Amino acid sequence: MASFLTDQKHYRTSFFLKILHSNSQSLSLKFLFGLPQLLTVRWKSYAYVNKVKEDLEKRGCQVRTGCEVNSVSTNEEGCTIACNDGAKEVYDGCVMAGHAPDTLKMLGKEATYDETRILGAFQYIYSDIFLHRDKTYLPRDPATWSALNFLGIMNTRGCMTYWLNIIQNLGDSKLPYLVTINPPHTPENTLLKWTTSHPIPSVAASKASCELDQIQGKRGIWFCGAYQGYGFHEDGLKAGVAAADGVLRRNCSILHNAKHMVPTWPETGARLIVTRFLKSFIETGCIILLEDGGTIFTFQGTDRKCSLKVSLRVHSTQFYWKVATQGDLGLADAFIHGDFSFVDKNEGLLNLFMIFVANRDLKASVTRSSKKSGWWTPLLSTAALSSAKYFIQHVSNQNTLTKARRNISRHYDLSNELFSLFLDETMTYSCAIFKSENEDLKVAQLRKISLLIKKAKISKEHHILEIGFGWGSLAVEVVKQTGCKYTGVTLSEQQLKYAQSIVQQAGLQDQITFLLCDYRQMPNNYKYDRIISCGMLEHVGHDFIGEFFSCCESALAENGLLVVQQESRAVVFYYMPSKTLNTFAFGWARTIQL
User: Fold this and answer.
1) Beta carbons within 8 Å of 389's beta carbon, 6+ residues apart
2) Which residue segment(s) compose the domain that 227 sits in?
3) What Pfam families does UniProt report for this protein, alphabetically (predicted)?
4) Fewer CB near the last or first residue (10 Å), C or N of the chain?
């Protein structure tokens, strides 16, 4: 940027603003959240140049370094490269990635009229650069020190100082490490000096960049370099990609930067709340938010309990608003509506949940000692209104006898086709027992069913009752394995319909009976030898757990067995407000881990 500070009057205002926008886009609004995050490759060019060199050599390419090229000429045989050591080599084509003046110098008298005219439009300015530790080349007040400090126009050249401690994460030091461009005199404690050139943005250069297609590949020579854009590294990369596509004779389609997000003032506040929450909440693992347009937030924990990292692409500022105002339910809503997505389509969602769980567990002891209500609620204070709304909804959804049918229908009667998308072919729901992480779901579900049958000690002479039979998989399996008589109850019409169909297919109608009723409305004149409840107690609700077991006791024969399997939570999490579960699942549920 220092290369054009001295000659701004010769530029179009729009062109000058484009350059500033390209260089500083990532800084906008980031000052609300701390220092701007600018990504750089670790170990700089040394790392990626060697990486490319290694990859090319693995592919059988010959890479020569330290070889100065004197001239490039063309004839019917191809391109002849003359080196400083006297060697000459002939190639089918050539990509010239040097500065425009250096390129013209290598082409020499063989440069065509168009090559001379177009490449000659790109002018350069030379700057003296010093690596030093002289604090006088920073603002007097240390509180105003920035990564990039403009010191003014000195000797008709722009003078700027880069604070390397910040840019390259060097940490604090007694004297800062600085790079100053075009200082009026040599700084004290100078470590290194060199001279480099920068392309000068101009109207002529802008026009010439639009005419590059007139010379690209015309003589088997392609041209690329940062001068074809605004002089930044990204411009050099884009020009290189375009030249490579030209050599391969394929169309080049350079992606444009996504439009920078401009949140409303309420969304700006929501973003501040969400980022502050994640900064304080994430103690282990790493969550990265990648906004469309380039803004990046990284939340890295210091605890090594969890090594997982997940990157979220934020496509809409509504993501922040929903999370800030609705908490975890807002996160789900934002995902459903495409406000964000995961870079890793396969493991991203799982890793996010695992990171949340790991951090929740880390904070469990703090929650237990301070008697706070939960990991999310205290931190998202702006969700107070929505918390009140969900509390009212929770109260209205109490699983009373009159409301239980409605509550079950809202979840299980959505459609059997929907549940078949993520259940195994037996349509068995919840509480699968896995022996390994990648085990097939059907195998884990059948293991659960077999374990329930074993726990209940079922034999042929028994009549068993299942409260909440799901889609009927246990009913069919237990009768097949033991030959017992089976009765099941449900409140879901869709589940009843599906279960009846698979029983009919198995030819077990004489041994299996299904009832569409509440567990509190079962016939009280019959006793069952065994009662099984799997994944149903979650639906009962805290206020009705006692009534549920009373009904089981009334229906259980003397010396009978009751087997209950359910999802549960540790005591420390049991009394957390269940305010956000009802919209997409079943919020009336809470069960304690015994």
Assistant:
1) none
2) 61-122+199-257
3) CMAS
4) C
CB 379, CB 327: distance < 8 Å: no
- Sign (positive/negative) of CA torsion 449, 454, 458, 464? negative
CA–CA gap between residue 462 and residue 485 (Å, rounded): 6
Kindly give the interhelix angle for 318-336 and 265-281, rounded to the nearest 10 degrees: 70
In this structure, the chain runs to a length of: 594
**Alpha helices by DSSP H, 465-544:** 473-482, 493-506
CA atoms within 13 A on the CB side of 81: 17
Distance of CA 250 to the CA centre of its chain: 32
**Would you say residue 394 lies in a domain?**
no
For residue 397, give the DSSP letter. Answer: T
Looking at the structure, tell me whether residues 204 and 72 fall in a common domain: yes
Which SS3 state, helix, strand or coil, does residue 534 take? strand
DSSP 365-384: HHHHHHT-S-SSTTT-GGGH
- CA-nearest of 300, 231, 216 to 19 is 231
In a shared domain, residues 87 and 221? yes
Phi/psi at 251 (5° precision)? -70, 140
The owner of tokens 């500065």 is 99
d(CA 284, CA 273): 20
Please indicate, yes or no, whether residues 351 and 473 belong to a single structural domain of this protein: no
**Band of residue 68 on the pLDDT scale cut at 50, 70, 90:** very high
| Nearest-angstrom CA–CA distance, 444 and 5 | 68
Domain count for the chain: 4
Locate tokens 């406000």: which residue? Answer: 339
- For residue 174 the two structure tokens come to 């007694």
